[in-house]
Design goal:
The protein has 83 residues and is mainly alpha-helical. The chain is built from three helices and no strands.
Length: 83
């Protein structure tokens, strides 16, 4: 189960890598924006939306695994308490 969670956590990494690009060696440095846009979420445009989507999905999947683990623990202890 640990390997599966590690794999799921590594899924959004390509989206982060796509947002960080190095400038060409001979190119002039780009001017930094004055202020971030109000509507941007974790990045700009589609990459930010995909990143937010992936993080939300990972959160939901993580909650499902956590609840399944808790349910298994409770069910294992229930018959012992009934004796």
């Amino acid at each position: 189960m640990g390997r599966l969670l590690t794999l799921l956590l590594a899924l959004p990494l390509p989206a982060f890598a796509a947002t960080v690009t190095a400038p060409a060696p001979g190119a002039a440095p780009a001017a930094a924006p004055a202020a971030p846009a109000v509507g941007s979420a974790l990045g700009g445009g589609m990459t930010g939306q995909l990143t937010q989507l992936m993080l939300g999905l990972l959160l939901v999947i993580g909650l499902i695994f956590a609840l399944a683990w808790v349910l298994r623990r409770v069910q294992q202890n229930a018959p012992a308490a009934a004796r």
